[in-house]
Amino acid sequence: MIVSTEGQRPRSKTLPFMDLQAQYNHAPESACSHRAVIVMDTDNFDWSSLGFDYIKTDYRYLSQWKDGSWDDGVLTEDNTLHISEGSTALHYGQQCFEGLKAYRCKDGSINLFRPDRNAIRMQQSCARLLMPEIPTDVFVEACKKVVLANERFIPPYGSGGALYLRPFLIGVGDNIGVHPAPQFIFSIFCVPVGAYFKGGMKPVNFMVSSYDRAAPYGTGAAKVGGNYAASLLPNKEAHEREFADCIYLDPATHTKIEEVGSANFFAITHDDVFVTPYSPSILPSITKYSLLELARDYLGLATQETDVPITDLDQYKEAGACGTAAVITPIGGIQYKDDFHVFYSETDVGPVTRRLYDTLTSIQVGDIEGPEGWVVKVK
Ligand SMILES: Cc1ncc(COP(=O)(O)O)c(C=O)c1O
């Protein structure tokens, strides 16, 4: 339930982290009394109704880079940024972001899933766009602080939801030429989410787009906003044709599958090989690399990262999209030119996809033990 308190908007506060934890423990009234504009009534919320929409949560992390170094960072209630009109993020797309989730476990504890991998991928995106990197330990600690400060927004264990964290790093400051920004902002906010694709763990259909989301030696492997701006029009066209999203082919030859909207692609051959495309213009999905390991070590499948020609779809009995937001979304069918190819079923989930999903999600919520270091306890 969303309650608007517009009209009584108080000034936002920033809190050093220690104070925040203390306030939650000892003086909840004062920590909560300045909540602004839109708050979610987390006590009376139907968690199963969550989709993938923006909801303002209580606190976000904010750190600034100036004169060669990052400051100590704060948690703030203010969900707006006041930046120079000359900011490179606005004109030249000098920005990158990440996405990861915090999960409520059966015993009430909270897990992050492989946050160090997101930190490393963000460092790689920063290197590609000449932005200062956030060290892994700073990134992971900031994630933990944001989760703790917004604990009431974590969907309960068993609801299928999670707290989605959105770290981002942008070039700001007075500037006009095409060069790196004089200043940068790193922030992490969070939103409680349910399924990304309508229906959750139900097969959905995709169409092959004739547009590209990235160039062969461009920024496809970096998580930068420009790739997503380029995907808005093809995504709209896919929705207009009643597909969940687009499949993008390799930009050089348009013959091999690369990405499924904002997720990676995988498929299972008739003789049980887990196959996923390899290409320098694909975003290296943390979920995909986790599934490669789980398929091999937990399900006993052979695995391959290789070319997946769009004309070879009949070699696969099951297919899916995988990512932090998509989790594992089974692909019912793919429209390519005039052909519509159905994999396992347009309505039912294939058994291998189901086992991969169960294994991955059970590790994320702590029901089964994952490989060393995958789960990071927040509390
Ligand atoms: C283009 C694209 N591919 C793949 C993924 C999946 O990556 P991950 O599993 O790290 O969330 C994402 C989401 O981050 C994405 O935006």
From TrEMBL:
Q: What is the name listed in the Swiss-Prot or TrEMBL entry for this protein? A: Branched-chain-amino-acid aminotransferase
Cited Pfam families: Aminotran_4 (PF01063)
| Record-linked InterPro entries | Aminotrans_IV, Aminotrans_IV_CS, Aminotransferase-like, B_amino_transII, BCAT-like_C, BCAT-like_N, BCAT_family
Required co-factor(s) are:
pyridoxal 5'-phosphate
Q: Which PROSITE patterns match?
A: AA_TRANSFER_CLASS_4 (PS00770)
What this chain does, per the entry, is described as:
Acts on leucine, isoleucine and valine.
Q: What class of enzyme is it?
A: transferase
Alphabetized GO MF terms: L-isoleucine-2-oxoglutarate transaminase activity; L-leucine-2-oxoglutarate transaminase activity; L-valine-2-oxoglutarate transaminase activity
Biological process (GO), any one: L-leucine biosynthetic process
E.C. numbers: 2.6.1.42
The UniProt similarity line reads:
Belongs to the class-IV pyridoxal-phosphate-dependent aminotransferase family.
Q: Which UniProt keywords apply?
A: Amino-acid biosynthesis, Aminotransferase, Branched-chain amino acid biosynthesis, Pyridoxal phosphate, Transferase
N6-(pyridoxal phosphate)lysine is found on K223
Catalytic activity from the UniProt record: L-leucine + 2-oxoglutarate = 4-methyl-2-oxopentanoate + L-glutamate; L-isoleucine + 2-oxoglutarate = (S)-3-methyl-2-oxopentanoate + L-glutamate; L-valine + 2-oxoglutarate = 3-methyl-2-oxobutanoate + L-glutamate
Q: In which pathway does it act?
A: Amino-acid biosynthesis; L-leucine biosynthesis; L-leucine from 3-methyl-2-oxobutanoate: step 4/4; Amino-acid biosynthesis; L-valine biosynthesis; L-valine from pyruvate: step 4/4; Amino-acid biosynthesis; L-isoleucine biosynthesis; L-isoleucine from 2-oxobutanoate: step 4/4
